[in-house]
Amino acid sequence: MKKLFTFIAMALMAVGANAKEVLTLPEDMGAGKTTEFGNWAWRDVANLFSGAEIAADATDAGVVYYDASAYDYLVIKYKQCSVKTTFGVQYESKGTVGQWGPELYQSTTELTANTSGVVGFQLDATHKSKVYKVFLQSQGEGSIIIEEVYFGSTAEYEADVAANPTEAWYPDTSDFLSKFNGTKNDDGTMTFVNASAWNWNGAWFGDYDASYYSYAVVELAKPVDFTVQFVIQHVSGDDVSIQVQPGQKAAILELSENKNHIKQSALQNAQVGEFTVKAVYFATAAYIQENKDNILYDNTQEIALSGLNPWEGRATFDATTGVLSITGDPDGGAGWWQGSADFSHFDNFVVELESTTVGGEVVVQYVAEVAEASRRANASSKVEFGVGATIIVIALDAANKNAVQQMWIQGNKDASYTIKKAYFAVASATPEANIGTSTGISTIDAAKQQNGVRYNLAGQKVDESYKGVVIMNGRKMVQK
């Protein structure tokens, strides 16, 4: 008899240990899938009633509620909750109607943003025999991974809490592009069309705590030929900002000491125009350190032809056709002014031309510093090109490429060049140089080796007695 009693007791204990009722989750919510939330989004975790729904006038005739009387707690096991979220259960109808429809009795608790763990709450003893549904409602935009939701005993809940303590969790990046009011595109990007310069395209946070993050990042879908300014404003009223320069694809803004109280952010355009943003997000220092180059640069960075300014009175440039015409003598040209731009990521500056009939020169000039031992006043890298040039490659000076002042292309009077594109490139993305071979002057080094050698416009070698236009050292001149 004693043995039989022991067996029955053990069986009852086993039943008690497995008595929890695990709820079946929606297809897009279970099996470790990430559930995404919009701002104040409501998601049904489980509709537990059968029969009719509660009517719009709050009557519940025909509603068959779920009976959870055997349980003490409603519990959720979750991972990577990135937004403060209400977890709750609705019971029977109160018989009244509010702003959002029929009012129901309910019990709730909250999942803290940026956590993983187990959260539960005691069921209302008066109403738990009439459960209508279980729900989640976000208090902002974010996501959560749900592992399990169940009704269970106090002991089961306490055992789960002990085995799965709540832990802080933050994603490496926290996207907030959706907070901006722009044209939302199918690919997830957002386009801003501004009819005035320095238009304020804002994103409201209220009082957001970004303490976990060290940087904010804006990435454009493609570079534009004007400045885009990215601003973070704090509750205290002070701003921090950074600019995406013309031709660049992104900017990384270090957050200030007030980052735990961010009020709003903004994107501004330096001139009338349109720009499309790929992403705006907060990021950890570790993420930026690992991904900085990929964020800021592609393997190439194109320089907009529309930014090529002809030297006044010495050249003209048509950005539509790409034709640069030299009108000055002895030299004329056009340049891209950079101020003091950092192109450290790249190895070369490349200019691609249509086939040329006259030679010229491409130059990269670096910022002049105050007089010091390390002064680099007027430091430059340059390459001369001859007839037939199509690709000119200028190797950037390793010591100076973090401060590029300008790039230009020049030639003698009446020369004309059709520029296809200009860009900075890493070594692996740099095409093979083809800077003209029909004159015998193929590089600046070759020109030095043939100093004083003259060629006519047909590429034939001539001497000093030849009368007419000649090319010497890559430059055109008239011999009389």
Description:
With 480 residues, the protein is mostly beta strands. It is built from four helices and 37 strands. Strands 1, 2, 6, 9, 11 and 12 form a six-stranded antiparallel β-sheet that branches. Strand 36 and strand 37 (475-479) form a beta hairpin. Mean pLDDT is 86; it is low at 1-18, 370-376 and 438-451.
Strand-pairing-aware structural class? mainly beta
The mean pLDDT is 86
**Into which percent range does the helicity of residues fall?**
under 10%
Count the E strands.
Answer: 37
Q: End-to-end distance, in Å?
A: 131 Å
Unreliable residue runs: 1-18, 370-376, 438-451
Tally of alpha and pi helices: 4
Q: Calculate Rg over CA atoms.
A: 35 Å
Major beta sheet summary: 6 strands, antiparallel
How does the overall form come out from the CA principal axes? elongated
How big a fraction of the residues is strand? over 45%
Q: Can you give me a brief rundown of this structure?
A:
The chain is built from four helices and 37 strands.
Which key features would you list for this structure?
mainly beta, six-stranded antiparallel sheet, 37 strands
Q: Could you give the topology of this structure?
A:
Blueprint lengths: L1 H16 L3 E2 L11 E4 L4 E6 L2 E2 L11 E2 L8 E9 L3 E14 L2 E11 L3 E8 L10 E6 L3 E11 L1 H10 L3 E2 L4 E3 L7 E2 L5 E5 L6 E8 L6 E6 L7 E7 L4 E6 L5 E5 L7 E8 L3 E11 L1 H12 L3 E4 L5 E2 L4 E4 L4 E4 L5 E10 L6 E6 L6 E7 L13 E6 L5 E5 L8 E8 L4 E10 L18 H6 L4 E3 L4 E2 L5 E5 L2 E5 L1
Antiparallel strand pairs: 1-11, 2-11, 3-10, 4-5, 6-9, 6-11, 7-8, 7-10, 9-12, 13-22, 14-15, 15-22, 16-21, 17-20, 17-22, 18-19, 18-21, 23-33, 24-27, 25-26, 26-33, 27-32, 28-31, 28-33, 29-30, 29-32, 34-35, 34-36, 36-37
